[in-house]
């Protein structure tokens, strides 16, 4: 890879991150969802949904790992979301120190709305693109994020 290509990729990633951190982007996703939580709460909802297998929800530790945050940070967010009836936290029968999480109907509805809004933004952004380009971009972004995550997930 040339130095120029590396700089261009770094600039593109940086630009994407800035675009998705703008207050107007966050407002578009969060406005009208019917709760006071922020983008971090939506990330927690998404993590719980992604990590749920069958009827077994993830632990707080699994959510923290998925989000790349400290256990205490995830725990505080989750406790707030349980209080707001977005998540249910149930103590495990086999290990009382562990708790499993699941989405409530309200939490699931908020996640669906936020996901729909995020996908609307993406759809508008790639409206004039050819389908193979969108498919290739999704494949390459997934490959890039997986490579970076593998490098730093264990650190």
Model description:
It is a single chain. The model has no long low-confidence stretch (mean pLDDT 92). The chain is mostly helical. Strands 1-2 form a two-stranded antiparallel sheet. β1 (87-91) and β2 (99-103) form a beta hairpin. The longest helix has 22 residues, at 131-152. The protein has helices at residues 3-21, 23-30, 39-51, 60-67, 71-83, 105-125, 131-152, and strands at 87-91, 99-103. Keywords: DNA-binding, Transcription, Transcription regulation. Residues 1-146 form the HTH marR-type domain. It comes from Brevibacterium daeguense.
What is the radius of gyration? 18 Å
Looking at CATH, the homologous superfamily is Winged helix-like DNA-binding domain superfamily/Winged helix DNA-binding domain
> How would you classify the helix and strand content by structural class?
mainly alpha
What integer is the average pLDDT?
92
Outline type:
globular
> Could you give a short account of the major beta sheet?
2 strands, antiparallel
CATH architecture: Orthogonal Bundle
**What is the CATH first-level class name?**
Mainly Alpha
- What CATH calls the topology is Arc Repressor Mutant, subunit A
- Describe the strand arrangement of the main beta sheet, using strand numbers: 1-2
The total number of structural domains is 1
Order of helices and strands: HHHHHEEHH
How many β-strands, per DSSP? 2
Strand proportion, as a percent range, falls in 5-15%
Distance between the termini: 26 Å
Q: Give the helix tally.
A: 7
């Amino acid at each position: 890879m040339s130095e120029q290509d590396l700089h261009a990729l770094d600039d593109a990633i940086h630009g994407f991150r800035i675009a998705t951190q703008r207050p107007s982007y966050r407002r578009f996703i969060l406005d009208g969802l019917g709760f006071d939580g922020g983008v971090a709460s939506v990330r927690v909802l998404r993590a719980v949904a992604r990590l749920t297998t069958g009827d077994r929800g993830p632990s707080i530790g699994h959510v923290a790992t998925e989000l790349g945050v400290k256990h205490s940070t995830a725990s505080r967010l989750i406790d707030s979301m349980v209080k707001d009836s977005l998540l249910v936290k149930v103590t495990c029968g086999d290990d009382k120190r562990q708790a499993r999480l699941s989405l409530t109907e309200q939490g699931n509805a908020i996640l669906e709305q936020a996901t729909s809004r995020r996908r609307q933004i993406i759809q508008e952004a790639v409206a004039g693109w050819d389908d193979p380009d969108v498919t290739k971009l999704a494949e390459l972004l997934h490959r890039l994020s997986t490579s970076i995550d593998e490098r730093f997930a264990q650190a």
